[in-house]
Amino acid sequence: MQTKPQTRYSDPELAEFRALIVGKLAEANKQLAFYVDQLTEQTDSDDGKKNELDDGTHTSVVEELQNQANRQRKLIQHLEYALIRVDNKAYGICRATGLLIAKERLRLVPHATLSIAAKKSH
């Protein structure tokens, strides 16, 4: 008797992934808040009190903080989309092949939408 290949993760598996994503989302939001606070401190130091860093270094620090904050925002967006896919029971399905993405990959990169094989071929 041939078993039919699994086309989606079960509800308990999706609940496990949801918990993982929610945890990663909380962590990402906390990190974003840190970067925003650091940016605020850097910008506030421009107004009035003299920053201890020279202008070039200060600009470089601000740009790096902005880049890190933007990366966090992008990660948060990807994680939020992953939660939507969990709710729609479409989570973990490779958008290129239609097959399930390995659990190990999803545990490492919970917002992944491509299997390793599909990612390598792109």
Description:
It is built from 4 helices and no strands. The chain is mainly α and 122 residues long. It has a domain at 11-91. Helix 1 (11-46) packs antiparallel against helix 2. The longest helix is centred in the N-terminal third of the chain and has 36 residues, at 11-46. It is elongated and about 65 Å long. A zinc finger (dksA C4-type) spans 94-118. This is RNA polymerase-binding transcription factor DksA. Residues 91-120 form the Zinc finger DksA/TraR C4-type domain. Pfam families: zf-dskA_traR.
Question: Strand content of the residues, in percent?
Answer: under 5%
Fraction of residues in helices? 55-70%
Q: Could you give a short account of the major beta sheet?
A: none
Compressed to H and E, one letter per element, the order equals: HHHH
Residue-averaged pLDDT: 90
Distance between the termini: 36 Å
Structural class by secondary-structure content: mainly alpha
- Total number of strands: 0
Number of helices: 4
Chart the SSEs and their pairings.
Blueprint: H1 11-46, H2 55-87, H3 103-108, H4 116-121
Helix pairs in contact: 1-2
